[in-house]
């Protein structure tokens, strides 16, 4: 079944049982703050639109515009200090170990910042009071629209970022002839100059910033061409003047000299000009039609409704403000789809992966440089890519992993004397793999290990063995590094990662240092890399000496441990502080996104993970709350997951101007400041509440909140290549349509009895390898007699044989 027919089937099946919800963000005044502006993007080009009818601003980004140039940040002194650091750790001298890491492991280069290209200004010449103002972002078309009236004339501005044509397009219209009068100009705060060339193209040329001793060498170019109907077009110094026009269309092209992480020999001017020349030959409606068709080929794959609302006419910021104490359920599908909108807009095949702010950054040095933080944030950006049916958009991250496996091959031997490849907790467009930011945050050699999970996870959804074969060397390379880096700790003779940290956290109760050995998350990551490498090798019929070695090492990894207050231990020792509300919950990686912890296979660990999560608390940074939505969904507690969604959909900006974790007026996630990972995390979490497939079966409505007693979703994707459409009433599945893309056995888990052709109740192991679950060693438990048993709903399991391309309908058995 091809993509177009699949989308049509999804749309028809959804529309048959649910009214399509309104997918519009709307506001009744211009943006004053950047986090009130509306984002458009095509994966490469982004703009933030303020919607000001007097002085409009489009803040512009091009996703390869970063400070600096190709460079390395490895420190070869680490290798000679490694043995001493490990000895200090195993002797309990953590402060000395951390000091030595700071002295010997860091280069002084902590990564280059992502940078804005500049701003396009539209200064309107018409005077008079503005009335009938509205600005919107239509998630179904990816078009931002601003409308207003002045002196009886209605004005409309539409903006979209076209992937097919690789330009941003702006059209302005007036309801009366000859009423459009404005000047367009381009600005940037440093290292750029603007001018109008002899072909009436408004242009901005410049070079990226120097940073940490690395000279800026990314050359960039923006070009704007205007076409008018009626009136005149002229130039004045560095501005385009549109006078007495009926309509005006602006074509905005941007490019840099970036070709790859190690090559900046491109021609920014020629690239920008070629896109501009091609696009400007086409009329606005043709450009818009192609843009909408391209965008909807992704967006329309999933439809989601929780019923009608009376709040659609309210502004979106007002809906967010009223959400926690109201009953505006329709805001949930809007927020869910906004996350998918952001991924479509910030990550396309051939672009850079979405960074800490997607592709939207306001200044020259955004928060945390808007880099790739790979100890959670970058991975979270791509959590919705497979489950919400956007698999192609995963490709930019996969490509970055390919590139990091090349640069990481230098870091592994140079810093640690190891084979394979690795990365620490942060990288940038130049694919650095050395540590950054100091030992407390940066002494984490597991960034490559976490990223590597995406390689096998993608295969589990797509079943693409050709893809798996192409990335297997990367997965194996990660396993090689871990095998070489593991060291025997003296107390239990376990093999552990040392030195390392539990990302960005420290026990505090016993010592304030983060540097340690055998942190729980590290053990979980090693287990996953090793087992996925073994599974991939078996699928591909690969044989080599490494597989025997990692099979032996798996038996010597530390088991997960349950500490003295019933918690899943974060560290190798029982150091956890029950009052620790840290934003990172790294030791719960085994619950989500991994599938090591299960209510059915590992009930003791399941309960311990729950104890840890309760102690961590709910309200936190926005991205942390997004992660917790997923964790509570995996804990099968829909009401608590929904409570976290409400916490996340709380206004970040308080009446006194201070900020908290939550949501900005434009639905951007707030750490604060803006981090896009929280948007993506919550979208993935909502999908996880409705369908799960990590634990040996497709679990239908595993974590449905009481408040969502009626609804419908279509187009969610599961492991094994199944598409799931659901309609439910009275909190029970009414109709389930499962489309098999790969064929094979489909196992289904449900709280209610189901019926359907070929459906049979079953127990035991599933035959479909895509539903294979890991065999987790028994945990070490400090106080076994005090452990609670999970209170779980009774589940029923079914199987049916499927054929590729066919859809199977299941209903509730009365």
TrEMBL record:
Lineage: Bacteria, Pseudomonadati, Bacteroidota, Flavobacteriia, Flavobacteriales
Gene3D superfamilies referenced in this protein's UniProt entry, alphabetically: 1.50.10.10, putative glycoside hydrolase family protein from bacillus halodurans
Keyword Signal: yes
Limits of the Alpha fucosidase A-like C-terminal domain: 692-755
InterPro entries: 6-hairpin_glycosidase_sf (IPR008928), 6hp_glycosidase-like_sf (IPR012341), AFCA-like_C (IPR049053), Alpha-L-fucosidase (IPR016518), GH95_cat (IPR054363), GH95_N_dom (IPR027414)
Source organism superkingdom: Bacteria
Keywords assigned: Signal
Keyword Cytoplasm in annotation: no
Domain annotation Glycosyl hydrolase family 95 N-terminal: ranges: 25-260
GO molecular function: alpha-L-fucosidase activity
A biological process term (GO) from this entry: carbohydrate metabolic process
Annotated ranges, domain Glycosyl hydrolase family 95 catalytic: 284-690
SUPFAM superfamilies given in the database record: Six-hairpin glycosidases
Cleavable signal peptide: 1-18
One Pfam family linked to the record: Glyco_hydro_95_cat
Protein name per the record: Uncharacterized protein
């Amino acid at each position: 079944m091809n993509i177009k027919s699949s989308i049509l089937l999804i749309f028809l099946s959804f529309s048959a049982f649910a009214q399509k919800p309104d997918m519009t963000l709307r506001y009744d005044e211009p943006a004053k703050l950047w986090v009130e502006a509306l984002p458009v993007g095509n994966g490469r080009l982004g703009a933030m639109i303020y919607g000001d009818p007097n002085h409009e601003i489009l803040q512009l980004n091009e996703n390869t515009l970063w400070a600096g140039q190709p460079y390395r940040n490895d420190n070869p002194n680490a290798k000679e200090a490694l043995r001493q650091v490990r000895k200090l750790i195993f002797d309990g001298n953590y402060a000395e170990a951390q000091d030595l890491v700071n002295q010997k492991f860091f280069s002084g280069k902590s990564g280059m910042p992502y940078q804005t290209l500049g701003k396009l200004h539209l200064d309107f010449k018409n005077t008079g009071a503005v009335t009938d103002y509205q600005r919107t972002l239509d998630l179904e078309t990816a078009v931002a629209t601003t409308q207003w009236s002045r002196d009886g004339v209605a004005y409309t501005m539409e903006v979209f970022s076209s992937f097919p044509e690789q330009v941003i397009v702006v059209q302005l219209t007036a309801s009366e002839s000859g009423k459009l009068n404005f000047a367009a100009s381009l600005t940037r705060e440093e290292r750029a100059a603007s001018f109008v060339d002899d072909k009436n193209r408004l242009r901005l040329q410049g070079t990226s910033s120097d940073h940490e001793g690395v000279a800026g060498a990314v050359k960039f170019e923006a070009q704007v061409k205007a076409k008018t109907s009626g009136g005149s077009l002229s130039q004045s110094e560095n501005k385009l003047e549109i006078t007495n026009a009926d309509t005006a269309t602006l074509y905005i092209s941007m490019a840099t000299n970036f070709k790859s992480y190690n090559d900046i020999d491109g021609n920014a001017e020629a690239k920008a000009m070629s896109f501009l020349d091609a696009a400007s030959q086409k009329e606005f409606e043709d450009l818009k039609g192609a843009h909408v068709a391209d965008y909807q080929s992704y967006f329309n794959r999933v439809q989601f409704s929780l019923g009608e609302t009376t709040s659609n006419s309210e502004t979106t910021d007002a809906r967010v403000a009223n959400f926690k104490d109201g009953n505006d359920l329709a805001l949930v599908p809007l927020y869910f789809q906004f996350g998918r909108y952001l991924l479509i807009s910030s990550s396309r095949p051939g672009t850079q992966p979405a960074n800490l702010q997607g592709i939207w950054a306001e200044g020259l040095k955004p928060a945390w440089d808007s880099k790739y933080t790979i100890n959670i944030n970058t991975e979270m950006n791509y959590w919705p890519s497979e489950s919400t049916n956007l698999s192609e958009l995963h490709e930019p991250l996969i490509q970055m992993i390919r590139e990091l496996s090349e640069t990481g091959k230098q870091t592994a031997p140079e810093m640690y004397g190891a084979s394979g490849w690795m990365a620490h907790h942060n990288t940038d467009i130049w694919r650095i793999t050395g540590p950054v930011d100091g030992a407390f945050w940066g002494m984490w050699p597991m960034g490559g290990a976490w990223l590597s999970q995406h390689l096998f996870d993608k295969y589990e959804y797509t079943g693409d063995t050709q893809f798996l074969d192409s990335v297997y060397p990367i997965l194996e390379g990660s396993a090689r590094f871990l095998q070489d880096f593991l060291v025997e700790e003296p107390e239990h003779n376990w093999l552990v990662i040392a030195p390392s940290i539990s990302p960005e956290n420290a026990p505090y109760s016993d010592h304030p240092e983060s540097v340690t050995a055998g942190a729980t998350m590290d053990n979980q990551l090693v287990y996953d890399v090793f087992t996925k490498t073994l599974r991939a090798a078996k699928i591909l019929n690969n044989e080599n000496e490494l597989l025997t070695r990692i099979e032996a090492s798996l038996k010597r990894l530390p088991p997960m441990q349950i500490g003295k207050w019933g918690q899943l231990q974060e560290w190798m020792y029982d150091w956890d502080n029950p009052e620790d509300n840290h934003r990172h919950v790294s030791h719960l990686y085994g619950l989500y996104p991994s599938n090591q912890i299960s209510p059915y296979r590992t009930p003791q660990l399941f309960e311990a993970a729950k104890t840890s999560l309760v102690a961590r608390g709910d309200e936190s940074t926005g991205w942390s709350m997004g992660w917790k939505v997923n964790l509570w969904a995996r804990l099968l507690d829909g009401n608590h997951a929904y409570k976290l969604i409400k916490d996340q959909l709380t206004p970040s900006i308080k009446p006194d101007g201070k900020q908290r974790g939550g949501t900005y007026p434009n639905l951007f996630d707030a750490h604060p400041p803006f981090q896009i990972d929280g948007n993506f995390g919550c979208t993935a979490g909502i999908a996880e509440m409705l369908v799960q497939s990590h634990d040996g079966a497709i679990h239908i409505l595993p974590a449905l909140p009481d408040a969502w007693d009626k609804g419908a979703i279509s187009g969610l994707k599961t492991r094994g290549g199944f598409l799931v459409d659901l309609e439910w009433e009275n909190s029970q599945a009414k109709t389930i349509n499962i489309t098999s893309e790969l064929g094979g056995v489909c196992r289904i888990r449900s709280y209610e009895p189901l019926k359907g052709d070929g459906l049979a109740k079953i127990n035991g192991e599933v035959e479909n390898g895509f539903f294979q679950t890991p065999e987790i060693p028994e945990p070490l438990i400090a106080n076994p007699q005090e452990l609670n048993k999970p209170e779980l709903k009774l589940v029923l399991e079914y199987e049916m044989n499927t054929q590729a391309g066919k859809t199977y309908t299941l209903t509730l058995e009365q």
